[in-house]
Amino acid sequence: MNDEFYMNLAIDEAWKYQFLTYPNPAVGCLILSKNGEILSCEAHQKAGMPHAELNAVISALQRLNPNLKAVFKTAKNANELYALALQNHANLLSGARAYVSLEPCSHHGKTPPCANLLKELGFAKVIIATKDVSEHAKGGEQVLNVAGISTQIGVCKDRADELLEPFWAWSNGNFSFFKIALTQNGVASGGIISNHASRTHTHAIRSLVSLLVIGGNTVRTDRPTLDTRLINGGKNPDVLIYSNETKFDTSIPLFSIKDRKVTISNSLEAAFERHFVMFEGGGNALSNLDKRVKWLLIYRSNEFKDAKNISLNLKIKIMHRAEFDDNELLWCKIIN
Amino acid sequence: MNDEFYMNLAIDEAWKYQFLTYPNPAVGCLILSKNGEILSCEAHQKAGMPHAELNAVISALQRLNPNLKAVFKTAKNANELYALALQNHANLLSGARAYVSLEPCSHHGKTPPCANLLKELGFAKVIIATKDVSEHAKGGEQVLNVAGISTQIGVCKDRADELLEPFWAWSNGNFSFFKIALTQNGVASGGIISNHASRTHTHAIRSLVSLLVIGGNTVRTDRPTLDTRLINGGKNPDVLIYSNETKFDTSIPLFSIKDRKVTISNSLEAAFERHFVMFEGGGNALSNLDKRVKWLLIYRSNEFKDAKNISLNLKIKIMHRAEFDDNELLWCKIIN
User: Fold this and answer.
1) Which of B229, B241, B300, B317 could covalently link to B333 via disulfide, CB atoms 3.0 to 4.6 Å apart?
2) Catalytic residue list of B
């Protein structure tokens, strides 16, 4: 097994939390012991929670010393967890290697810098997929090098850059994606397509986006709610109905969601001024998609249906697959 | 990382050669050093070639002592490779663990028994996903236990049993599967759907099957060749055209393939008497599939096409995914 193998595992782990880390980047970290054993593979899961490196360090230390579980359990937040790792590592990770999909941060944000954590714990080498170019976080590699820790940059860089596309885009103003549910034979209509686990994941994403855009036809046909009822404490996103007509039956459930602003417009310009925008709809919406929508999320059921498919010409690149019970989610980039 | 993690890697490796090992089973083997480092992960690739355990042992030994590459290169066949492993292992794998998707064989077939190999090299533990119940090969676990090697059975058993379904079925008389190429939106028609790498894989499978079954309508519409021109030295399978009509335009290319027997019949009974049978066709053939056809192989392109889908009701279970450049292959079980 080589560096690419380990880095791919770290990147796969990060993909599990893609979008869910908003506004932070999705990052994964794998730790290999001095002897080459995989000790842990963890990811950053949510803004405010520990970075990937801290999660991987905690998991590796607990593996090497199970008594530490009780110690780390007392941490009330990422800062305390970080402090406990520094106090209790007992050089267990001395000589270890870390594979990180993004250069460890060098700044004190909501948590202290990850580069410093790896340095203090005596890591021998840090392999980094891609550099952090953000003004406030960059410089982690230098921190490590100054401390005499060897680094290597660029392992699986393309995959790591793909993983980070949403982060860089929403940091620069806007990241927009389209979500659709399809059967194995491309049917999007005629009732619910995807399973409960897939819809729960969709609701978790809806809860984070700045705005949800949906076509007027879909609103009239499907009479959707577009809420986040399948998750606890979800935020219901504002909705932009993209339509030339301004009259809608306001008994359609989406209009009755508390704390939601619904806008009806024949222009998408306002949408692309928001940071993180989800488009939903069927084949017609996908056929006429604005070029600024970069990614396509296909939730694919495990059934063929005796019905008409969505029919359009479109080329995609599948970047990652996730399983939700008997359904899958294809994370795709729109090529043309 | 736990036993399931390592066994899943071994099973994933085996899937790369699913069908291609015919009439042998697809088997994978991962070797973990005494210290827990992954040393190798290999599979049985083709009948007559080394078993998974031997491939993994060779790869692990070469990793630990690169000088052995030149030694192992001199082997002219699996038997010689086995002998060289016994002569040159220098206890490098003493104390190691092997994760094997199928119980190591205990018999002298085309190669000496794998259980004996693991024993002679001093493995400390062998983790086995599922037992070998074949009369001639079973008993490997006992060989290991008698030699004082600890074993564990049943890790990822369900996945390993799925992997072996074709093997048990063709050993018991017949295994039949259906192959189709689909776009992202379920279109099967209108020219070539899948890419070169996918079609090459199809040809490799065609070269091994006992019989290829195709519907009369597909023959008339697509005028196929059904050969194996994309691989070197491929065997062109006999063809059964499933049709009520017996007259076909014999200028259709499939009729002119050397050493091929073409049968036209309105009965499939003869097909299910063959060991390994591939069905090809479109949506109509899939809708009317015989219940004895157990698996569905979907080669999925990376494009949506502006055309009608295949339309039918069918539920599948995706067991494994493989990538062929920008296409994927879904290995599916037909549920109903």
Assistant:
1) B317
2) 53
Report the distance separating Cα B287 and Cα A249, nearest Å.
40
- The nearest alpha carbon in chain B to A336 belongs to B303
Per the annotation, the verdict on A303 as an active-site residue is no
**Average pLDDT across chain A, whole number:** 95
Band (B127; pLDDT cuts 50, 70, 90): very high
Pairing mode, if any, of strands B38-43 and B28-32?
Answer: antiparallel
Give the integer Cα–Cα distance in Å for B117 and A85.
44
Instruction: Determine the Cα–Cα distance for residues A4 and A129; give it in Å rounded to an integer.
Output: 9
Strand order across the A303-304 sheet: A303-304, B314-324, B327-334, B295-300, B175-182, B276-280, B211-215, B239-242, B262-265
Cα(A147)–Cα(A137) distance, integer angstroms: 18
Q: Which CATH superfamily, name and number, covers B174-334?
A: Dihydrofolate Reductase, subunit A (3.40.430.10)
pLDDT at position B133 is 81
Would the CB atoms of B38 and A307 count as touching at under 8 Å? Answer: no
Homologous superfamily of domain range B3-170:
Cytidine Deaminase, domain 2 (3.40.140.10)
Record: contact B314-A308, CB cut-off 8 A: no
Domain definitions of chain A by residue range: 3-170, 174-334
pLDDT at B11 over 90: yes
Could you give the C-alpha distances from B278 to B42, B195, B211, B242, B264, in angstroms and in order?
A: 27, 20, 6, 13, 16
The ipTM, to two decimals, is 0.92
Phi, psi for B49 (deg, rounded to 5): -95, 170
Where residue A186 falls (left for φ over 0; alpha for ψ -120 to 50; beta otherwise) is left
**Closest chain B residue to A36 measured between Cα atoms?**
B37
As a whole number of angstroms, the distance between CA A27 and CA A7 comes to 11
**Phi, psi angles (nearest 5°) of residue B319:** -90, -35
How many CA atoms lie less than 13 Å away from B53 in the CB half-sphere? 30
Instruction: Provide the token pair at B16.
Output: 């790369």
Paired tokens of B330: 């879904």
Rounded to the nearest 10 degrees, how much is the dihedral formed by the CA atoms of B302, B306, B307, B313? 60
Q: Please report the pLDDT score of residue A191 as a whole number.
A: 85
Phi, psi of A277, deg, nearest 5: -125, 130
Q: Please state the rounded mean pLDDT for residues B51-76.
A: 97
Burial of A277 (C-beta count, 10 Å sphere; 0-12/13-18/19+): buried
Question: Among the options A53, A103, A162, A280, which is catalytic?
Answer: A53
Q: How far apart are the first and last CA of chain B?
A: 36
Residue B328's SS3 state is strand
Residue segments in chain A with a per-residue pLDDT below the cut of 70? 137
Q: Do B303 and A310 touch (CB under 8 A)?
A: no
3-state SS of B174-228? CEEEEEEEECCCCCCCCCCCCCHHHHHHHHHHHCCCCEEEEEHHHHHHHCCCCCC
Q: Which two tokens stand for residue A322?
A: 């996730």
**pLDDT given for residue A136 in this prediction:** 72
Instruction: Please judge whether B185 and A312 are an interchain contact, meaning their C-beta atoms are less than 8 angstroms apart.
Output: yes
A184–B298 CB contact, under 8 Å: yes
3-state secondary structure of A259: coil
Q: In the prediction, which pLDDT does A112 show?
A: 84
- Cβ contacts (< 8 Å) between B329 and chain A: which residues? none
- Quote the DSSP letter at residue A255: G
- Tokens 């305390």 belong to residue: A80
Distance from CA of A329 to the nearest CA of B (A): 13
